[in-house]
Amino acid sequence: MKFQNIIIAAFISATTASPVPNNVIITERSLEERQTLESNELVNGACQPVTFIFARGSTETGNMGTIVGPQTCTALKAALGGGVACQGVGAPYFATLEDNFLPQNTSPSDIGAATKLFNMAKTKCPNTKIVAAGYSQGSAVMDGSIQALPAGIKSKVKGVALFGFTRNQQDGGKIPNYPKAQTKVICAPGDLVCDNTLIITAAHLTYGANANQAATFLASMVGK
């Protein structure tokens, strides 16, 4: 418990002290992305050719967070020329720190929140192609959800990007029961959560710089 409290304190300190790394240039577009903390285009909007489902990291606000979710949504829409419904994973996924210490690095209810959206995408929009991404604890949410999806839904998930994958070592750099070729694991140099620890370093907060990389990969998966 003492070790857990130390890691939680370190995470809070890192996220509050330097939410934007010093080497990131703030532009009007990036400010707009950071303000888009909620996206419910699947739940509330019309069906689109592509549905993007994203799970944010621990303590992030909204259902898209600020580190990389909004940026990836924007980049994916640009890569595909629009036609994308972006949907963040919300309640009962509250992105609490404590859930990182559970066996799946997140809770069953967190995983269930993502699964509900995959089910909705298939039933509400049967012709949509699904892509997904998760950051930090959100990567574990996606890992747990996608590996357990029924075959009929899993086949509609064309590609997945995992930023700061907390189960990277445990699951061998992939999502169990899902094609590795359709998965892009993005781990920044020095991000220790990718090495089977829950130690937060500054590297863990840099994934906004990888949004275009992830969007390019997801767009290529949609085209196959």
Description:
This protein has helices spanning 2-17, 28-35, 69-80, 108-124, 137-147, 151-154, 211-222, and strands at 50-55, 84-88, 129-135, 157-163, 183-186. It has 224 residues and is α/β, with parallel strands linked by helices. It has a single domain (41-222), classed as Alpha/Beta hydrolase fold, catalytic domain (Rossmann fold, 3-Layer(aba) Sandwich). A five-stranded parallel sheet has the order 2-1-3-4-5, sandwiched between helices. Strand 1, helix 3 (69-80) and strand 2 form a beta-alpha-beta unit. Helix 3 (69-80) crosses helix 7 (211-222) and helix 4 packs across helix 5. The longest helix has 17 residues, at 108-124. It is globular, with a radius of gyration of 16 Å. Residues 1-35 have low confidence and may be disordered.
Helical content (DSSP H or I, runs of 4+): 25-40%
Q: Given the structure, what is the number of helices?
A: 7
Extended strand count: 5
**CATH overall fold name:** Rossmann fold
What are the segments in which pLDDT stays under 50 over at least 5 consecutive residues? 1-35
Strand content: 5-15%
**Can you identify the CATH class?**
Alpha Beta
- Please report the distance between the alpha carbons of the first and last residues: 47 Å
- The averaged pLDDT comes out at 85
Shape: globular
Short recap of the structure:
36% of the residues lie in helices and 13% in strands. It has helices spanning 2-17, 28-35, 69-80, 108-124, 137-147, 151-154, 211-222; strands spanning 50-55, 84-88, 129-135, 157-163, 183-186.
